[in-house]
Amino acid sequence: MKKVICLLLCVILCLSVVSANDNQQKIYETTSEVYQAIRTLYIATGHALPSTTGPWSGAELSLMAAKIDPSSLSGGLKTTYDYVSSQLGLEPKKLAEGVSMKLGLEANIEGYYHTNTEAAFQGRSNMIYGMMDQKPFLSLDWETWTANSFYGFFEFDFMNQIHAASGEVGSTAFSTNILFFQNLKFAMGDLNLNFPYRAFVSAGGDHWSFQLGRDRLNWGAGETGNLFVGDNLIYHNMARFTTFSDVFKYTFVASFFPHQMNYDGDTDNDGTLDGGWNTVSGQTQIIKGLSMFMAHRVEGRLFDDKLNITVTESIMYMSKEGNLDLMVFNPMMFYHNNYIRSMSNSLLGFEADWTIINGLNLYGQAVIDEFCLPGEWKPGVDQKAFPSAYGFLLGLKGAFNVGNGILYGSLEGVKTDPFLYLRYGEDDGGQKVGEYGINYVVAIRNYGEGGTYYDEEFLGYKYGGDALVGNFNIGYKQYGKFHIEGNFFMMAHGATDKWTCWTRVGNGDGTYPDYADLQTPTSSHPSGNHKDPTATATRNAVAYTTVIGLNGGYSFTPALSAMVQADYITIKNYGNIKDVNKSDIQLTFGVTYSI
């Protein structure tokens, strides 16, 4: 009788994860602890990774969780499963029949200290605990659930901005996230007026979800980033549709960005440069052109859920006139066969992960930007060849039940070609400084002290092309309670960056740069650079970066938690200039209270 009762309780608990909330259209962001906990359970119990295409709806996460048999879990795995159950089973407060609402307030106090205040370590992008990690001083979340199919989210972030009146974070030895006191001096101009970073509506059912608005994307299992769509953009303005089951998932997304012509230095669009790259403009600037990222992604699970295979294809579509040819707006099209090189750049990606044994998952990614077809000019042989552009990522994740927590770790390596994500715009002979390219480099438009800025990031891998990266991390975690983690990171980065002008490559006859000089990582910069006019003359070495870090966090109550992080970073040949070496020690601490 006891066995029957225990079995009944297990079934009820399992079903409660799936059906505790009638409306499961809440969208869980890419950094969701709930998803990370499910991923840990999948690795530890022998499943391939759950869908790596974030964000996810509550319905999808519940479907993932339903694959785990709670009766087979103990110790840290049972604690992790209970955490998932408690989070997915939360009921919003009902205002009326069919309508629920929730207001959440989170207060964060963070402090940042570092030993080197040179420009090399100023700004959120140059901090290890950086833009994607730093929390707003106050955050107010407004969530609404309507009927069984609709969800809305709006996030008020009261925080200091990137382009602050008191200067960059890190321009002083100690800085904070306290509103108006970024660098320990009062400045009203520090206030960020660019919120919300997450604001959208969604609709869906048990096996589909549609999202419209502003949110972050992250596609892949990478720890240092992902080759196709990385989590290094603070948001996408997008429309996203996904349909899923326990063995198959399809995702389509269209995301829009400012065209490069709005910030390429030709402020009056007369064909001549009258300002620098990323020229600051005012609110009255007329935004011209169209820049659209569009992608579809298919995932399939095989061999008793041990293997997951993913195929992704995208198109970066640009029009100076702002025209959208509906011919390209096709969720089922093979974008490479549009044959519109003057207006688009296609990217093709393959991913797979395989749980070898319980606790160990092997994963990999390959992305193809440019390759030579039979009969086309071949790099290193023909004078007018296009440079090859590939990216590869390979890693191993581990998750093991230890005590009441999980011992986890990963080992990852990445290689990207110099011209990955970069390409010409209208002239396939090569770019000149100030000419836009159809690049997987996109801009977020931010209003700050002095005007409007266009802050550019790679849409794919955060370190871009021309990089060799190795990363190892190990940690111990009890979800909802505490964690401690150590990390070791190394990168050799060549002289190519996101502002490098694209060029053809030849066979070393002097007409075009020698292709042999363009192998990752490069030690020279043979073409022009939109932002650094000295690049060709000064960049003469590979830059080597090493980071050793330790971080931890503890939840005193469900509402109160604290974290601390310490990192040592050293860069040899900083800026790809030989014998220019820099180092820094960065310390971060924070306290969070949420209701």
**Helix share, percent:** under 10%
CATH A-level architecture: Beta Barrel
Q: What characteristic shape results from the CA principal axes?
A: globular
Count of domains:
1
Which CATH first-tier class would you pick?
A: Mainly Beta
Contiguous low-pLDDT stretches (5 residues minimum) are 1-20
Q: What structural class do you assign from the helix and strand content?
A: mainly beta
Distance between the termini: 42 Å
Fill in the CATH topology.
Porin
Number of strands: 26
Strand content: 35-45%
Question: Assembly type of the shown chains?
Answer: single chain
Can you tell me the CATH superfamily?
Answer: Capsule assembly protein Wzi
**Largest sheet, if any?**
18 strands, antiparallel, barrel
**How much is the radius of gyration in Å?**
24 Å
The number of distinct helices, counting runs of at least 4 residues, comes to 5
Name the average pLDDT. 90
Summarize the structure.
The chain contains five helices and 26 strands.
Layout of SSEs?
Layout: H1 2-19, E1 27-28, H2 33-44, E2 53-54, E3 56-57, H3 58-65, H4 75-88, E4 93-96, E5 99-114, E6 138-146, E7 150-158, E8 174-176, E9 199-204, E10 208-215, E11 218-219, E12 236-244, E13 248-257, E14 290-302, E15 307-319, E16 344-357, E17 360-370, E18 389-402, E19 405-416, E20 441-448, E21 451-458, E22 467-478, E23 482-493, H5 535-538, E24 543-555, E25 560-572, E26 582-594
